[in-house]
Amino acid sequence: MYREMSITEFSGDLLNQLNKGAFLIVKSKEKLNVMTISCGSIGFTWMKPTFTIMVRGSRYTYELMEESENYTVSFPFSGQLKNELAVCGTMSGRNIDKIKECRFSLKEGNLANTFILDECEFHLECKIIYKHFIDKTKLDSKIKENIYANEDYHVLYFGEIVSAYRKDD
Ligand SMILES: Cc1cc2nc3c(=O)[nH]c(=O)nc-3n(C[C@H](O)[C@H](O)[C@H](O)COP(=O)(O)O)c2cc1C
Asked: Which residues, 6+ apart, have CB-to-CB distance to 63 below 8 Å?
């Protein structure tokens, strides 16, 4: 059983886990992919609770994000799925089916075309309300040098948190 939660209830646990990795799940048409993320911002944007994620233009996930209206993020709050975080953070969905490889159980989300990983305790369902490639002319020079030496810039996706829920203990 899952319980809906408000942004102020879960933001501490979310930030703690994000550091270690969470699973971004996106589906476009018949293609579904899972990718490990650790970049993200939680807050209020345009008076809506939002979770903003960063996906580099080189990722297979980026292709699916560009064709999608929604995405989900599943968090393994108990520190489980370390191996799966490594697999989904190093292998590309262009080459393997990560759902099969990690034996994930997909569960349908509430938003159209969304799925969550039932092995995780906590899930966000987000609707994309704004997106933009990093503008290198406005970026701190050290970050540009250290993070984007290969010019593989991130796209920022602002996701309105439409639903956030945690498994009851
Ligand atoms: C802990 C961890 C965190 C990561 N965070 C991000 C991230 O926030 N954004 C990103 O674009 N890539 C991130 N990556 C890299 C992608 O997960 C990785 O390149 C993945 O293989 C891309 O998969 P895809 O080609 O199926 O999209 C992270 C990797 C790890 C291991």
From this structure: 28
For residues 36 and 22, is the Cβ–Cβ distance under 8 A? yes
Does 49 contact ligand 1 (Cβ within 6 A)?
no
36 Cα to the center of ligand 1, angstroms? 5
For residue 118, how many other CB atoms are within 10 A of its CB?
14
Q: Are 69 and 1 in contact (CB under 8 A)?
A: no
Taking only the tens place, the pLDDT of each residue in 32-78 is: 999 999 999 999 999 999 999 999 999 999 999 999 999 999 999 99
Question: For ligand 1, is residue 126 a contact (CB within 6 Å)?
Answer: no
Domain 2-167 has CATH 3.30.470.30: no
